[in-house]
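Notes from the 1:1 (GR / supervisor)

We went over the backlog. Supervisor wanted to see one worked example end to end before approving the batch request, so GR pasted a single chain during the call. The sequence is below; no edits were made to it. Supervisor asked that the structure be written out right there so they could see what the output format looks like.
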Amino acid sequence: MKLIVIPFLLFVGLSFAQNDFYSEDINVTPLIEGTLLLPSPQKEQPLVIIIGDSGPTDRNGNQQMMVNNALKFLAEGLYTEGIASFRYDKRLVKLIKHRALTESEIHFNDFIEDANAIYQRFKNDNRFSEIYIIGHGQGSLVGMVTAQIGANGFISIAGAGQEIDDVIIDQLSKQAPGLVDNARTSFDDLRATGAAHNYSPGLASIFRKEIQPFLFTWMQYNPNKEIAKLQFPVLIINGDKDLQVDISEAELLKNAKPDAQYEIIENMNHIFKEIKGNDLENSKSYNIHNIPIMPELISIISDFIKK
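Structure output shown during the call:
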């Protein structure tokens, strides 16, 4: 997770229509809408619930000025393998669209509640033989908490292995080492009292008052502890060209869940695209709508589900 992800309320999600796939658009709650892709409408099949990354990310994995369709391509790739999927717009998308967003009222637990509601919506649907949860980026932590209520398996793609304050401290140590001590003190204050006041102006994007409640509630979850609670098959995936989540984070998850399947995909970046060039090529891929995702990702996930 790179530092610029933390101010998560900057972009409005964009959606794209489905073509050539049997799909249903479903409203799960007043704030959660998504698309169900159903390869075999008359046949029982496994279902994956796909939980997106940080920010107002829509069901296709997009935000305004960042259209790469990563989650759309993931769902469509699984469809070709006979695996149904439900992916959804995060609640921030609708709140921003209706000018109803109050940043200070958004908590990390809201995302868990949304994912729980989706699981409850499908758990008794006889079209589905099993339910797996896929969490991408921030959605990995949301997914591993949600999966504890009864999923058949969990898949983490580019998920952090540390608490979010430690992730940010690691980022700062590489990007702005002069801010590390102040950030550590501010995180400690936030964890202890629910508020941080004496932070450097250079850290305002992280600690500004309006998003401190969100950050505080996010800090209450430790991915190492949450993934260790899972008593069913777990798959941990990372790409070695991920600019946002280092492979070391995946290694931490693997250490916490030794029996998990662990896969590092060569040349895959954070949004599942193949990158053979430099960081500039990598960054540009975030806003190219028609680059396919790596087929290895589809095959690894589908093989895991079909075991």
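Supervisor's comment: The chain has two domains: 9-162+222-306, 164-220.
Batch request approved.
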